[in-house]
Amino acid sequence: MRKILFLVWYIGLSLHLFGQTYQIERIGTDKGLSQGSVYAMLKDSRGFMWFGTQDGLNRYDGHHFKVYYSDTDQPNALHGGFVNSMIEAPNGDLWLGTDYGLNLYQRQTDDFRFFPSAPERKTPSACSPFAVRPPFVWYWSESEGIVKLNYDTQQKTVLLADVSYDLGLLSVSNATKFGKDGRLWVSLSEGLMQYDTSSRQMRYFFSKHPKNITGNPISILKILMAKEGLMYLSHSNGVTIFNPKTTDFKHITHLNGIELNEIYDLDESPDGDIWLATSSSGLFRLSKDGKAQQFIHQKNDNNSLSNNTISSVYISKDGLVWANPDPLGINLLIGTGKKFRSIKYVAEAQNSLSDPNVRTMIEMDKNQVWVGTEQGGINVWNKQTGLVEKCFKSDPANPRSVPSSSIYHFFRDTQQQLWIATYNGLAKYLGDGAFESYFLTTKKNMGDNIFRCLAEWDAAHLLVGTENGLFLFDKSKKVFIPIKGLENISILWIDQPTPGELWLTRFNEGCWKGTLRNHEWLPQATVLVGGNALALRKDAYRNCWWIATNNGLLNYQNGRIVQKFTAKDGLANAYIYGLLLDSQHNLWLSTNRGLSSFNPDTHQFRNYHVSDGLQGYEFNNRSYMADSEGVFYFGGTNGFTYFRPNEIRTNTFQPQIQLTHFEINYQPAQLPQYIGETSELTLKADQNTFSLGFIAIDYLSSGKNNYQYRLVNLEDNWNTTPDNLVRYVQVPPGEYIFEVKASNGDGFWSDEVRRLKITVLPAFWQTWWFRLLNLLLLIGIGIGFYRWRIQQLQRQQRERLELIIKTQEAERKQLATELHDDLGMRLSTLQMYLSEIDISQNSRASKLTPLLNEAIADIRNLLRDLNPKLLFEEGLRVAVEEVNSKLNAVGLIKFELLWLDFPEKLPEVIEINLFRIIQELINNTLKHAEATHITLQLLQRDAHWVIIYEDNGRGFERQPLSSGFGLQNIENRVQLLKGQLHFDTAPQRGVHVTIEIPHH
Question: Taking a C-beta distance cutoff of 8 angstroms, is the pair 297, 308 a contact?
Answer without folding.
Answer: yes
